[in-house]
């Protein structure tokens, strides 16, 4: 809708079924792709029950119909504009514009699906790439709506889907750019990035409130803004979006944009509103955040698809939360090499910390044996004689010459240098409480040493071996990775130090309080 009377302003934010285009429908097909690789081509099925939730189909029969406008949407917009501009002079001539007619479900949805699938097969002149090989009607459901059989080559479909999502976003941005060349630049604009920010804010609030990583949400729960301006004429006042306002149909593809970026997995997409309510539909997305399956092969937070596949959901969540904190501190601004090196080290370190919690024989038992064998020794150099060789050998074996031991930096010797990332090691023993139960901030002394070595990069790491005490404490992985921000009066950006805690102070599950 491009223009409306003030009393109809809510319609600007309603999403009609006609506005669901090729990108949305291919997103539905994306969720139907098999999780495991198999022979190509893959045959997918698409019908009314694949688009709508089961409750939305209740009460329908083969004789059910939908009420549609007799006049197209552009025609209705022109009629509203003329009515506002000329008033009574054209009202009688335009009285038929609001008429509606009934269409059988099979005719309405069959025509819509055939048109969209045709474009997905053949592409179009507006950068839509062909995504499917062929389609054909194989049957009708109990309501007389066609069920289509669709053949796709999986990788071709995924590549086309990513390209089409990007093209849709770029189209909006190009439209803004063209419109801004002749529109009043003082007018407010809502770019795609801003709309994506609203979606991220909602997902963050949901995750922070419930701790869920897999959940469903209704698209109407997410903030979406359009900039509206008044229009005056002989027929009174009307309102319309500004030239720099996003189209309402864009909202339906925003979750797919985040999926392409690698921020989440989309497990299912369903329309939850009644089938016959085609002028104002509700869409439910079922997602997993962070992305684990990552079927689109995206690199997010510098974590490549190959590394992501080797990590558990909990490990990915801890890693992404850590990297987002570092990004907020502008750690990687203009430093792509540092970001890549840190991603390699941090993804490895998170997995080691998790394994330390899970398997006592990995680090806890060797640490206890080392302490026992050195009992009575006056000065125990546990960081250098035990922890350093334990980690260095594993790092060197995996990453080769990227890892160096005890290089001289700033008049001292950093324990491990991973590319340009300085890594300090500490062994903590003889304390009454576990380190995860204490406050770790800029006053935690080891972060000062790491920050000194990170004077050029603004990023350092501390790996702490927390040796068992007399009061073991149960914990979880999120407590074992902390980002400490150290700010300096004259520095434009802070120095960030990531503390990884190898917690060897956990009790056996049967002994935990």
Shape: elongated
Beta-strand level of the residues, as a percent range? 15-25%
Q: Please report the distance between the alpha carbons of the first and last residues.
A: 61 Å
How many structural domains in the coordinates?
A: 2
Major β-sheet profile: 6 strands, mixed
Mean pLDDT metric: 88
* Count of helical regions: 14
Return Rg in Å.
29 Å
Find the count of extended strands (DSSP E, 2+ residues).
Answer: 18
Helix/sheet category:
alpha+beta
Low-confidence stretches: none
Q: Strand order within the widest sheet?
A: 11-14-15-16-18-17
Structural account:
By secondary structure, this protein is of the alpha+beta class. It has two domains: about 5-290, no CATH class; about 305-505, no CATH class. Helices cover about 35% and strands about 20% of the residues. The chain contains 14 helices and 18 strands. A six-stranded mixed beta sheet has the order 11-14-15-16-18-17, sandwiched between helices. The chain is elongated and about 100 Å long. The protein starts with about 20 loop residues before the first helix and ends in a 10-residue tail after the last strand.
